[in-house]
Amino acid sequence: MSGERFDLVALGEPMVEFNQTRGAAGQYVQGFGGDTSNCAVAAARLGARAAYATRLGDDEFGRLLLGLWQNEDVDATGVGIDPDAPTGIYFVTHGPKGHEFTYRRAGSAASRMRPADLPLAVIRAAKVLHLSGISQAISPSACDACFAAIEAARSAGVKICYDTNLRLKLWPLPRARAIIRASVALADWVLPSLDDAKHLFGSEDADAILDACHADGAPLVVLRCGAEGCIVSEGRRREHIAGHRVEAVDATGAGDCFDGAFAVRMIAGDDAFTAARYANAAAAIATTGYGAVAPLPRHADVLALLRERVAT
Fold first, then answer.
1. Based on the number of CB atoms within 10 Å of its own CB, is 85 exposed (0-12), middle (13-18) or buried (19 or more)?
2. Which domain holds residue 51?
3. Which residues pair with 75 in a beta bridge?
4. What is the predicted pLDDT for the residue at 241?
5. Which of 63, 78, 103, 111 is in Cβ range 3.0-4.6 Å of 122 for a Cys bridge?
6. Residue 302 CB partners (closer than 8 Å, separation 6+)
């Protein structure tokens, strides 16, 4: 990859997904997940030069993921193979409370990632490095690797895009809060969900949450509010951007799609408010199919939904 430049490099744990189909008890559709991998695929589908950095097991699930990235035009130069650890998998079921996840990821190859394993040349070749709270939560060594990646990226002038993506099954809230808020301070763009932020900042008030992120050091914050859209704050300017009403069937990966779409448009030169409008539309489309990857939209799909809103 000598001399190659990427729009976005994502770092974290990819997984193979088995998603339950509604109305068909016991039947699952095989797909792909892992928040940062979803983000990289979303960015690639929307026209960005994307790459991924992680560790995989030397197993069939790892080979499936390599095939995914090849098919989606996501560069895998930064992917290493751990012959002594498995690739993570997870299951999605759908019930009255929405989608629920069951993971088989303990001791995964990605969770064994260390700072020494980082593909620093790939990271330094990015315009944006994207990572999340999950990337840090899967193990102490992976957390160390994330901070080392941020340091390498910042020293090379690479922007940091950070999704808090809180998973309390992976780590206790006090540690999560400390690590995530330390990461917020190092990020250029912080993309928390409202549900995450209520735990992390101890408030349900959107303005208080945004103020806390800025106080921690984040210059740009986009608070994602699900179907209600998002609130974009640059400090002096703050604006709520409404979501899109679609026939949603599965919200798995919608936030990851938002992240990728937002990064793509920021890299393209949009202001944060325009980029968030685009990302809202992309994320809405991502809820209209099953799985984290299959329904991720193309650029033309997003433009069509945006035009539809203007027309109405």
1. buried
2. 6-311
3. 51
4. 95
5. 78
6. 46, 261, 278, 281, 282, 285
Tell whether 1 is covered by a domain: no
Residue 114 lies in a domain: yes
How many structural domains does the chain have?
1
- For residues 42 and 259, the answer to whether their CB atoms sit within 8 Å is yes
- Chain centroid to CA 267: how far? 16
Asked if residue 168 is part of any domain, the answer here is yes
Q: Count of CB atoms within 10 A of residue 23's CB? A: 7
Class of residue 188 by CB neighbours under 10 A (exposed 0-12, middle 13-18, buried 19+): middle
Per-residue pLDDT tens digits for 96-123: 777 788 899 999 999 999 999 999 999 9
Residue 140 domain-assigned (yes or no): yes
Q: What is the Cα–Cα distance from 224 to 100, expressed in whole angstroms? A: 20
79 near 67, Cβ under 8 Å?
Answer: no
CATH number, domain of 96, equals 3.40.1190.20
Confidence (pTM):
0.94
**3-class secondary structure, 30:** strand
Task: Give the model confidence (pLDDT) of 194-251 as tens digits.
Answer: 999 999 999 999 999 999 999 999 999 999 998 899 999 998 899 999 989 898 887 8
